Amino acid sequence: MSNNFLQTSREGAIVTLTMNQPATRNALTGNTAVAEFVQACDAVRLDPSIRCVIVTGAGPVFSSGGNVKDMQRFFTQDIPPDLIREEYRNGIQRLPLALYNLDVPVIAAVNGAAIGAGLDLACMCDIRIASDKATFAESFVKVGIVPGDGGAWLLPRAVGMSKASEMAFTGEALSAEEALACGLVSRVVAPEALQEAALHLARKIAANPGAVLRMTKRLLREGERSSLESLLEISAGYQAIAHKTAAHKEAVMSFVEKRPPKFED
């Protein structure tokens, strides 16, 4: 299946979403990118057979973020601030709400530059792996604006407040190796190996029971903002559900019978 911005492909329980507008450096504004991401996330959320998602970009760039040429209209046209605010609320801000909150594990395979909202898009994913050609910049300050897509919330959770502040205040780019050193990505591979590396990791994830993967991700998300007591209470409830699943029975019996498990959602 292909759309205007996203190309969607599937291998078993793994869905790959490829941003496919290299002519605009896979910009996320001034087009249908946000709407297509939201639609794709809704489809994944409603399909229990999907266990992992990969997000990547076509061409030499992961995503350049906001379309800078399109931003000219904010000062060439008489658009009042309240309408600009609503455009953000009903536009790019729908993306983190859909992707960050998706309860399926998401891998960002960063093939090239991830700039501004493109970097923040990568931070909406659970795991980031990068081509050694990739670069990363929280560059909003360079074009005289602030992170309007949630980057000020997302980036510190990925690299810590000190590094996030350095990146946001300078707007300077990190190389793939620098991103690895600060924990922004978990591995760096050769460009030609990136897609297979992402699929290899996704296959390891997708080998596990889907319902439990979704509950595990939800617990990780809850843990970012809950007290330990609250998280333990939620964990007890999820565990009660997990113990009654067919997947748990299959996992235990396969261990006892010394055979590989066969999980079916």
Question: Helicity level, as a percent range?
Answer: 40-55%
What is the annotated CATH architecture of the largest domain? Alpha-Beta Complex
Q: Into which percentage range does the β-strand content fall? A: 15-25%
Q: Which stretches are poorly predicted, pLDDT < 50 over at least 5 residues? A: none
What is the mean pLDDT?
94
Question: How many helix segments?
Answer: 12
What is the count of distinct domains? 2
Largest sheet: 6 strands, mixed
Structural class category:
alpha/beta
Shape category: globular
So, the CATH homologous superfamily of the largest domain? 2-enoyl-CoA Hydratase, Chain A, domain 1
Intertermini distance: 23 Å
The CATH topology assignment of the largest domain is 2-enoyl-CoA Hydratase, Chain A, domain 1
- Spatial extent as radius of gyration: 19 Å
Strand order in the sheet with the most strands: 1-2-3-5-7-10
User: What is the top-level CATH class of the largest domain?
Assistant: Alpha Beta
Keywords:
single chain, 265 residues, alpha/beta, 2-enoyl-CoA Hydratase, Chain A, domain 1, Lyase 2-enoyl-coa Hydratase, Chain  A, domain 2, 4-stranded mixed beta sheet, 12 helices, 45% helix
